[in-house]
Design a protein that fits this description.
Elements lengths: L5 H17 L5 H17 L3 H18 L8 H37 L16 H16 L9 H9 L1 H4 L7 H4 L10 H34 L8 H32 L17 H7 L2 H12 L9 H19 L3 H19 L9 H23 L3 H12 L7 H7 L2 H15 L7 H5 L4 H23 L12
Length: about 475
């Protein structure tokens, strides 16, 4: 049940939205809960049972952890909190990292003449996201920031809400708790505000990201013997654009769908490639993940309150976890360490703040973008060997060109898409956020909505009808 599949777009979404529009106001959470479980089961199959068990454990634990109603003392509640978080993380480790961990154990055992059976475990869809939702729910309740949900249907609607279940945004419980019990009085207004945002995301995904996919795949699949400076940089730049338009497109679709259902989901991107420091990049890229690690890992570890050494330690821990959260591969760990090191260097050199002089800002923005593009090679490469080959060629210019394999993939249409996408991320215009899209009083907002609805959406529909779409990149995480 892919967001860009005909089954989802032409059948599932219209039926769910119609049900939300015509049923009584108080039925919204029930419709969303049932539709979301059906959506998940259609893709996850038997592993839906893992989601149901996880929701049951965390729902019951939430009622025990609420300070105002719990009969347990503070220390006992901390023990329960730690235990249930451990259960959530244990499930994540077993299902997502068992193969990687047993493979490393097997490599180590082979050094001593032994061996370990490598686990073959299929990754349940969305487990990284709903695990973080559950932890947010428990911690926010334990801190007394929100009351525990006494309505299991509303709880299911939060955890399993299909727009954000598979690939985010990661919605902290405090951000949505007050919306769950509210009855809807402006359903048509919500639909009118959410649909243009959904259309924008669909356009970004199908017209831009999917067109760049073949170019990226060919560049990253090039053998070390055939790799060149041009191929390495083309692959890195094309992936930089593909990943942004794919993931931000998904987030736009999720936020738009959520709004049509009556929920205001948090923003996830704010023109991250406009950042003038790596620190600022992480305030703009995958913002819901950055906020989650800040609130539930970095600050509890002490943040920057206990001296420089511990601040660097906390940053290192956060970015190691950020890397491994994305996948069980050494490339993700090194990518996390790479960004953690950049943030530490910025703090050490006191360059984490944006300069005021225009030419300095432009220079810093260019250097930040280059560092981010360089790092994306680690994120996309299948292994460290291929990553090192590409990064090595990116540092050593040559005049070999694109070759006979990569060159033909960059046809006129894809070249135009690549250049337009590059222009969009380089231009200094303000971000197309939800407020910008929803505003009907400004000419840029009206022009953007008109362009998306009149030009982008029909063309995206034609491409979808022809079968030229692929799963979202963040589905794999």
């Amino acid at each position: 049940m892919n967001f860009v599949s005909p089954l989802f777009l032409w059948y599932f979404v219209p039926v769910v939205l119609l049900a939300v529009l015509v049923t009584p106001r108080g039925w919204r959470n029930g419709v969303v809960a049932v539709a979301s479980l059906f959506f998940y089961a259609a893709g996850a199959g038997p592993t839906t049972l893992l989601l149901l068990c996880s929701m049951t454990v965390n729902y019951l634990a939430g009622m025990v952890l609420e300070p105002a109603r719990s009969k347990l003392g503070e220390n006992d509640r901390k023990v329960v909190l730690a235990g249930v978080i451990a259960i959530n993380l244990a499930a994540l480790v077993v299902w997502k990292y068992a193969g990687f961990l047993t493979e490393q154990a097997d490599n180590l055992a082979r050094l001593f003449g032994g061996g370990v059976q490598v686990a073959q475990v299929a990754l349940p869809i969305g487990i990284s996201f709903y695990t973080f939702h559950h932890i947010s729910y428990l911690v926010d309740i334990h801190r007394g920031e929100r009351a525990a949900s006494r309505n299991p249907v509303a709880f299911i609607a939060y955890i399993a809400m299909f727009p954000q279940l598979v690939a985010g945004p990661i919605v902290r419980y405090r951000e949505i708790a007050d919306q769950l019990p509210q009855q809807r009085f402006h359903r048509l207004d919500d639909f009118a505000a959410g649909f243009p945002r959904f259309a924008l995301g669909l356009t970004k995904k199908v017209i831009v990201a999917d067109q760049l996919g073949p170019v990226v795949a060919t560049c990253f699949d090039t053998s070390p013997h055939d790799m060149t400076f041009a191929i390495a940089w083309l692959g890195a730049i094309a992936y930089t654009l593909q990943l942004y338009f794919d993931f931000s497109g998904y987030s736009d679709m999720a936020i738009g769908l959520g709004r049509m259902l009556g929920f205001r989901l948090p923003e996830n991107f704010a023109r991250p490639y406009s950042s003038v420091t790596v620190t600022e990049f992480w305030r703009r890229w995958h913002m819901s993940l950055s906020r989650w690690f800040r609130d539930y890992v970095y600050i509890p570890l002490g943040g920057n309150r206990h001296g420089v050494a511990k601040t660097y330690r906390n940053l290192g821990i956060v970015f190691v976890l950020t890397g491994f959260w994305h996948g069980a591969n050494w490339t993700f760990l090194i990518w996390g360490l790479y960004h953690g090191a950049l943030l530490v260097i910025e703090r050490g050199l006191e360059t984490g703040k944006a300069p005021d002089i225009r030419w300095q800002r432009l220079l810093r923005r260019a250097s930040t973008l280059i560092l981010v593009v360089f790092g994306w090679v680690l994120f996309r490469a299948p292994d460290l060997g291929q990553a090192m080959v590409m990064m090595g060629h990116m540092l050593i210019p040559d005049f070999a060109g694109l070759g006979d394999v990569v060159g033909p993939t960059l046809n006129h249409q894809r070249t135009l898409v690549l250049l337009l996408a590059l222009l969009i991320i380089l231009m200094p215009a303000r971000p197309a956020t939800g407020r910008f899209l929803e505003s009907a009083r400004t000419r840029p907002a009206v022009a953007l909505r008109a362009a998306v609805m009149i030009l982008g959406l029909p063309y995206a529909a034609i491409l979808l009808a022809s079968g030229t779409f692929s799963p979202f990149l963040y589905y794999q995480f």
